[in-house]
C-alpha cells in the first residue's frame, strides 16, 4: 500500500496560517513575557499577524491554482474580497480591544470578591483576548472559503468558540456579561447541532462531502429529494442563526448588550461577513439548481427579518440593543442579495457587507466613549445633548447612523441601492418592497437618535464623553472616512468587486 | 438489518435532544441534550457512510467528536463561571439582559 502525500498549496492557505501562528505566539507570550510588557507585545503580535495576512492576500489574489488542501478550500475572487474585508475589520476592532479597560482584570474571580479587587489594584489586564481574537479571525477566513462539509463545520466552530468566551469577559456589569456568554454558547451550540444534522443529510443525499459532489447530486437529479430538503433546511438554520435572521435572532440583542463593546463591534461586523460569505458560496454554487426549494422560504425569512428588526428597534431604550435590532434588519437586507442569485446580487452583497461592517465597528467605537463613573452609558435618554458635549463623538455617530439608514453620500445608500436593484432584477419584488418599507421605518429611529443628540438639551447626570485616545480615534476616523468615501466615490471599489467576484464551482 | 433503521434512531435521538434543550432548565442538562443532538448527527453520518459505501462520513464523525470535545471545554468553563457567581445553573435565573 502506498501513501500519497496530500498537496496543500501553502501559499493559498498562508493568510490563515499567519493568523494561527500569531495566535500560538500569543499563547506563548502569555506564558513567558512579564505582566507589564504583555499588552504591548500582544498588540504588536496581533496587528503584525493581521497585517501580514492582508499583505499575503494581496500577493495571491490572482493566483492560478484555485483549490488548496486537496479541494477542501477554494480560493476565488469572492473569497479574496471577503477575507480582505474580514481582515480590515478585525484590524480596526483590535484597536478598540487594545484601548482602555474593557475587559475583566481576572475573569475567573467572583464578581465583587476580594480576589477581584486585588487584581484590579495590581493593574492586571487580561491579554488572552488577543490570541482568542486571532483564532476567531482565522476561523472567519476559513468559513467563506470552505469547500466541503468537514471544513465548513470546523471553521464554524473555530470562529464561534473564541467568541463565546470573549462575550463573557466584560469588566463592568460582569454578571450580565457572563449571562451573555451563556446564552450565546447554548444557542450557538444548539444551532450548530442543526447545522451538522443538515450536513449529514446532504451527505446522505449525494454520497459526497465536497460541495462539488453535492452540486452534481442536485444537478443530476435522481437522488432522494426528501434527504436533500431536510439537508438544505437544517443547514440553513445553522447559517441563519449565525447571521441573526428572524426567527433565529433571539440571542443577538442579549449578546450585543452584555458583551464588552469592542467584542460586540468585532463580532457584529466580522461574523456577519464570514457567515454571509459562506451563505453566498453555498446558495450560489451548491444549492443554485435547487432554487425552487429554498427561494420562497428564504424570501419569507428576509421579509420578516427586515420588518421585525426595524419595528422592534424603535422601542429600544438601550443604544447597544438598538444597534443589535438594526443589525437584524440589515441581515434581512443582505438576505435579499442572497435571494437575487445573480452576479449583481453577489457584487452588491459583498459591497454591502464591507460597508456595513465598517460602519458597525465605527458606531460601537463611539459607544465606548460615552461614559460615567461606573462605565459605559448605553441608556439612550442619557445621550441627550451629546452634540454639545462632544461634537466629534456625536457627529461621527450621526454619520454611521445615516449610513445604516442608507442616506445618499454615505456607503449605506450605495449598498442598499445596489442590493435592492439586484433583487428587483431577479424578480423578488415582494422582498424589495418590504426592504424599502423597512428602510423607511429604520430611518425614523436612526434620525430620532440624531435629533436626541443634537437638538435636545443635556441633563446633568454625570454622563461624560471621554476624550478618545489615539487608537479609538483611529478606529472612528478610519471608519468615517471609508463610509464617506464609499458613498461619494464608490466606483473604484464596485468595479474592483465586479471584476473579481466570480465563484468557481 | 436494514441500515435505514439507524436513520430512524438517529432522528429520534436528535428530536429527544432538541426537545430537551427547549424544555429543560438546568444549563448542564441543556448542554447534554446538545451533545446528544451532535451524536445523533454522527450516527446519521456513519449510517450514510455505510449506505453510500464511502468513508468520508466516518471521517466527518471523528471531526465532530473532536469539535464536540472542544465545545465541552468552552461550555463547561462558561457554565461553571456563571454557577460560581450565581449559585445556580438554571437558564431561567440568568435574566438580567431584558429590557
What's the SSE blueprint?
The complex is a heterodimer of chains A (505) and B (99).
Chain A: H1 10-32, H2 38-59, E1 67-68, E2 73-74, H3 77-98, H4 114-121, H5 129-142, H6 149-167, H7 174-206, H8 211-220, H9 225-243, H10 251-258, H11 261-286, H12 291-314, H13 319-340, H14 343-367, E3 370-372, E4 375-376, H15 386-389, H16 391-405, H17 411-425, H18 429-455, E5 464-465, H19 470-488, H20 491-500
Antiparallel strand pairs in A: 1-2, 3-4, 3-5
Helix pairs in contact in A: 1-2, 1-5, 2-3, 2-5, 3-5, 3-11, 3-14, 3-19, 5-6, 5-11, 6-7, 6-11, 7-8, 7-9, 7-10, 9-11, 10-11, 10-13, 11-13, 11-14, 12-13, 12-18, 13-14, 13-17, 13-18, 14-16, 14-17, 14-19, 14-20, 16-18, 16-19, 17-18, 17-19
Chain B: H1 4-23, H2 27-52, H3 56-86
Compact description:
Chain A has 505 residues and is an all-alpha fold. In chain A, 72% of the residues lie in helices and 2% in strands.
Model description:
The complex is a heterodimer of chains A (505) and B (99). Chain A is mostly helical and 505 residues long. Chain A has helices at residues 10-32, 38-59, 77-98, 114-121, 129-142, 149-167, 174-206, 211-220, 225-243, 251-258, 261-286, 291-314, 319-340, 343-367, 386-389, 391-405, 411-425, 429-455, 470-488, 491-500; strands at residues 67-68, 73-74, 370-372, 375-376, 464-465. In chain A, strands 4-3-5 form a 3-stranded antiparallel β-sheet, with no helix packed on it. Chain B is mainly alpha-helical. Chain B has 3 helices and no strands. In chain B, helix 1 (4-23) runs antiparallel to helix 2. The radius of gyration of chain B is 17 Å and the shape is elongated. The termini of chain B are far apart. The model of chain B has no long low-confidence stretch (mean pLDDT 91). Classes of the chains: A mainly alpha (505), B mainly alpha (99). At the A-B interface, helix 6, helix 7 and helix 10 of A face helix 1, helix 2 and helix 3 of B.
Amino acid at each position: 500500500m502506498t501513501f500519497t502525500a496530500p498537496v496543500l498549496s501553502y501559499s493559498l492557505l498562508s493568510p490563515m496560517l499567519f493568523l494561527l501562528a500569531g495566535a500560538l505566539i500569543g499563547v506563548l507570550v502569555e506564558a513567558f513575557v512579564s505582566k507589564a510588557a504583555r499588552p504591548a507585545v500582544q498588540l504588536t503580535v496581533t496587528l503584525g499577524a493581521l497585517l501580514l495576512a492582508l499583505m499575503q492576500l494581496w500577493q495571491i489574489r490572482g493566483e492560478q491554482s484555485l483549490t488548496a488542501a486537496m479541494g477542501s478550500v477554494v480560493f476565488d475572487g469572492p473569497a479574496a474580497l471577503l477575507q480582505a474585508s474580514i481582515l480590515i475589520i478585525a484590524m480596526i476592532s483590535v484597536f478598540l480591544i487594545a484601548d482602555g479597560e474593557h475587559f475583566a482584570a481576572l475573569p475567573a474571580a467572583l464578581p465583587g470578591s476580594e480576589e477581584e479587587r486585588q487584581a484590579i489594584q495590581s493593574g492586571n489586564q487580561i491579554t488572552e483576548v488577543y490570541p482568542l481574537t486571532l483564532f476567531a479571525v482565522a476561523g472567519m477566513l476559513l468559513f467563506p472559503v470552505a469547500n466541503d462539509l468537514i471544513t465548513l463545520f470546523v471553521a464554524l466552530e473555530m470562529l464561534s468558540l473564541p467568541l463565546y468566551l470573549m462575550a463573557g469577559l466584560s469588566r463592568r456589569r460582569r454578571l450580565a456579561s457572563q449571562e451573555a456568554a451563556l446564552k450565546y454558547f447554548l444557542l450557538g451550540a444548539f444551532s450548530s447541532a442543526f447545522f451538522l444534522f443538515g450536513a449529514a443529510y446532504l451527505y446522505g443525499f449525494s454520497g459526497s462531502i465536497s460541495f462539488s459532489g453535492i452540486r452534481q447530486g442536485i444537478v443530476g437529479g435522481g437522488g432522494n429529494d426528501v434527504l436533500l430538503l431536510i439537508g438544505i433546511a437544517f443547514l440553513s438554520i445553522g447559517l441563519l442563526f449565525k447571521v441573526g435572521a428572524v426567527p433565529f435572532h433571539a440571542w443577538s440583542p442579549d449578546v450585543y448588550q452584555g458583551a464588552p463593546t469592542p467584542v460586540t463591534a468585532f463580532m457584529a461586523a466580522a461574523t456577519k461577513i464570514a457567515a454571509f460569505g459562506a451563505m453566498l458560496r453555498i446558495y450560489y454554487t451548491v444549492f443554485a439548481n435547487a432554487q425552487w426549494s429554498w427561494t420562497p422560504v428564504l424570501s419569507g425569512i428576509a421579509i420578516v427579518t427586515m420588518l421585525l428588526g426595524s419595528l422592534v428597534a424603535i422601542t429600544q431604550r438601550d443604544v447597544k440593543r438598538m444597534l443589535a435590532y438594526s443589525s437584524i434588519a440589515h441581515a434581512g437586507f443582505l438576505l435579499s442579495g442572497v435571494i437575487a442569485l445573480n452576479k449583481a446580487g453577489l457584487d452588491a452583497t459583498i459591497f454591502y457587507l464591507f460597508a456595513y461592517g465598517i460602519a458597525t465597528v465605527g458606531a460601537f467605537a463611539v459607544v465606548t466613549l460615552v461614559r460615567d463613573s461606573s462605565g459605559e452609558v448605553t441608556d439612550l435618554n442619557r445621550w441627550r445633548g451629546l452634540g454639545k458635549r462632544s461634537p466629534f463623538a456625536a457627529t461621527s455617530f450621526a454619520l454611521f447612523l445615516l449610513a445604516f439608514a442608507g442616506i445618499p453620500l454615505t456607503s449605506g445608500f450605495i449598498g442598499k441601492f445596489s442590493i435592492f436593484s439586484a433583487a428587483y432584477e431577479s424578480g423578488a419584488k415582494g422582498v424589495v418592497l418590504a426592504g424599502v418599507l423597512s428602510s423607511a421605518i429604520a430611518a425614523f429611529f436612526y434620525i430620532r437618535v440624531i435629533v436626541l443628540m443634537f437638538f435636545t438639551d443635556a441633563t446633568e447626570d454625570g454622563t461624560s464623553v471621554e476624550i478618545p485616545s489615539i487608537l479609538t480615534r483611529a478606529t472612528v476616523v478610519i471608519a468615517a472616512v471609508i463610509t464617506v468615501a464609499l458613498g461619494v466615490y464608490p466606483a473604484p471599489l464596485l468595479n474592483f468587486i465586479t471584476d473579481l467576484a466570480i465563484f468557481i464551482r | 438489518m436494514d441500515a435505514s433503521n439507524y436513520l430512524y434512531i438517529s432522528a429520534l435521538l436528535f428530536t429527544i435532544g432538541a426537545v430537551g434543550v427547549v424544555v429543560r432548565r438546568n444549563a448542564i442538562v441543556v448542554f447534554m441534550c446538545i451533545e446528544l443532538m451532535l451524536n445523533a448527527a454522527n450516527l446519521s453520518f456513519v449510517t450514510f457512510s455505510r449506505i453510500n459505501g464511502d468513508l468520508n462520513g466516518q471521517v466527518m464523525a471523528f471531526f465532530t467528536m473532536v469539535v464536540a470535545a472542544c465545545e465541552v471545554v468552552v461550555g463547561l468553563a462558561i457554565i461553571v463561571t456563571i454557577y460560581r457567581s450565581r449559585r445556580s445553573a438554571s437558564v431561567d435565573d440568568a435574566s438580567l439582559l431584558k429590557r
